[in-house]
Write a structure and sequence with these properties.
- The chain is of the alpha/beta class.
- The protein has ten helices and 15 strands.
- It has helices at residues 10-21, 36-45, 55-59, 76-85, 100-113, 127-137, 162-165, 173-189, 281-293, 303-322; strands spanning 2-6, 27-32, 50-52, 64-69, 89-92, 117-119, 144-152, 195-201, 212-218, 224-230, 239-244, 247-252, 262-267, 270-274, 326-327.
- β2 (27-32), α2 and β3 (50-52) form a beta-alpha-beta unit.
């Protein structure tokens, strides 16, 4: 299957291109970039035959079956709709759009066209997160009481740019990282946040957008989720803690793009290090997407997952802006 990549991005070059080529019979034959020079250089560096600034040109190629979108956030909606209109399956970076309505529009268009639409939430593809989910589902920590996600990192210079200074492009730590953490909580607990309280601020990097946020979410089961995201913490580390009435999970170093970290289960019988698969997160995500196109299962994160993670992130931002508890608005989705 041939792919077109929309966005000559770092994530595309470091992770997704290799993940596509790891699938039998899959390759990237087009790259679309807003800069002709960048697009051509990116294509040449990665052995891709065609580069263009014209999305329609790439979509007109009947040999292209799938499109991966990793452009800046405000472009996701129109680019995804164009690809779907051209009959292409779409794997889109998070957040899907600038609003829940945009994200829902993308998902609905793909459903109407009978096309596969996926959200590239890589963390739910990791062996660590899948191992944690299995422990929770098996009841080994009992009834979940709380979950804590700490995802405060230091955004490297080559990724800063629009993420720290351009609200119109979807910049800010909330659409960049909180949206991931919302998907992690949903994936681990199997339920959707009901409402949130939050604060956000600028701690040394943001220019017109927030670079740090903390929030607390209530879940339908009564569990509470505490989430912390930042672009400015070089030594904080990352992880997840899940606490139940019969045990706790401590996962460290697992909120990353690599299959690394460690997980410890603590119960009344003692402490147990949990093993997990070290497969590539992105290869897993692309493999699930390709399988879904073949009629085998569903994407690791589909359009509905993308809609709901965005809805939580937008509720966090609204709560931080207003100082009020905000009910998460998932739009017209179930």
């Amino acid at each position: 299957m041939n792919w077109a990549f929309v966005g000559a991005s770092t994530i595309a070059s470091q992770y997704v291109l290799e993940a596509v080529r790891a699938q039998d019979g899959n390759d990237v034959t087009w790259v679309v970039s807003g800069s002709a020079e960048r697009g051509r250089g990116w294509a040449d560096a990665h052995g891709i035959a065609n580069a263009t600034t014209d999305l329609a040109q790439a979509l007109a190629d009947d040999r292209v079956s799938a499109v991966y979108i990793s452009s800046t956030n405000e472009k996701h909606h129109p680019q995804a709709l164009a690809a779907i209109s051209a009959g292409k399956h779409v794997l889109c970076e998070k957040p899907l759009g600038m609003s829940v309505a945009e994200a829902q529009d993308m998902m609905s268009a793909a459903q109407t066209a009978g096309l596969v639409f996926g959200t590239n939430h890589h963390l739910r593809c990791s062996g660590a997160h899948r191992a944690m989910r299995d422990v929770i589902a098996d009841g080994r920590i009992g009834r979940v009481l709380s979950l804590r996600i700490f995802h405060a990192v230091h955004l490297p210079p080559h990724l800063q740019g629009w993420r720290i200074n351009d609200a119109s492009a979807g910049g800010g730590v909330i659409p960049d990282i909180t949206v991931h953490d919302a998907d992690v909580a949903r994936f681990l607990l199997g339920e959707d946040p009901v409402d949130v309280v939050a604060q956000m601020g600028v701690s040394g990097m943001g220019d017109g957008v927030e670079d740090s946020a903390m929030s607390v979410w209530s879940m339908p089961s009564g569990a509470m989720v505490m989430s912390h995201e930042s672009f400015t913490h070089p030594y904080a580390g990352s992880g997840v803690e899940v606490h139940g009435d019969k045990g706790s999970i401590f996962a460290r170093g697992v909120m990353t793009q690599e299959p690394v970290g460690e997980i410890e289960l603590v119960t009344d019988v003692g402490r147990e290090a949990l093993s997990f698969s070290d497969h590539s997160l992105y290869e897993q995500g692309v493999a699930d997407f390709v399988a879904a196109i073949a009629g085998q299962g569903r994407p690791a994160a589909d359009g509905l997952d993308g809609v709901k993670s965005l809805a939580v992130a937008l509720a966090v931002r609204e709560a931080a802006q207003t100082g009020r508890r905000v009910t998460v608005d998932y739009g017209d989705v179930t």
